Amino acid sequence: MQAPQQGRYCGRFAPSPTGPLHIGSLLAAVASFLDARAAGGRWLLRIEDIDPPREVPGASDAIIASLQRHGLSWDGDILWQSSRIDAYRDALATLRQRGLIFDCSCTRATLGPGGSCAGRCSPGPGDACAQRLRIVEALKDFDDRFLGPQRCQDMDDLPTSDITLWRKDGLPAYQLAVCVDDSWQGVNAVVRGSDLLSQSPVQAYLLTALGCPVPSYAHLPLILGEDGRKLSKQNGARAINDERPLANLRQVLALLGQESAEAEAATPEQLLACATERWTPALLPTGAAPLVYADASNPP
Ligand code: GLU
Question: Which ligand 1 atom minimizes the distance to the CA of 15?
Fold first, then answer.
């Protein structure tokens, strides 16, 4: 799909403040950090706080404090998506001028299979509408830097059409915000969890529609709890314990297959410096089996 952009590597960690960091989100933060630093690149922090209904009070501060406690220092200022609404509006207007946006008044119940409306609804005056992107060409397969070639037809949860860019409740949607900001911040290498794998062809499509370069994508193996459920804030995954950053980092490095002899590291920064030198994406456990995280050593 995309050749990595030219120029210095620029990566990012982009958490939504829907809860504190858990081991799965720490894994994504550490991997994107190491990948960026090992390439001599920049690593940015963006707080994706554009969904107030899902936001948990205090989560942004907790995430930032956890990153700091774990020695994960970012370049430049934090970008808060809530400060970028005008930029999202401008991008939407550009797409609308190009005839790529349609208004959709469908409810979940009236949408067809796969959440598709395909522009068939006819909103009346005053109806609350989402603004959706018309997908006029097939989404493209792509080469994932960690997982290898990815085919859209194999992705069960691939959003097929009608990508919502502006929600009915008046809020900008994730896809629009992420693309506008990745482009504006010069992000050219995205490293994140596999739960977002099927978003990548959509984001590549949207970036191309916006006339922006497409970053390279690299997804990490999904991490499951011992109960076999995906670790997520929604599943109540436990917050990482900021009092034991070295142990958390060692655990994450082991999960990433990067185990090595940094026993002597006395601080998170030293440990991350060693891990940066030794960062070997080829060691990532990218086989079919998901990573399983045993929480025994992280008592509540
Ligand atoms: N904000 C998203 C999340 O917390 C991640 C966005 C991304 O990495 O593209 O799941």
Answer: 4
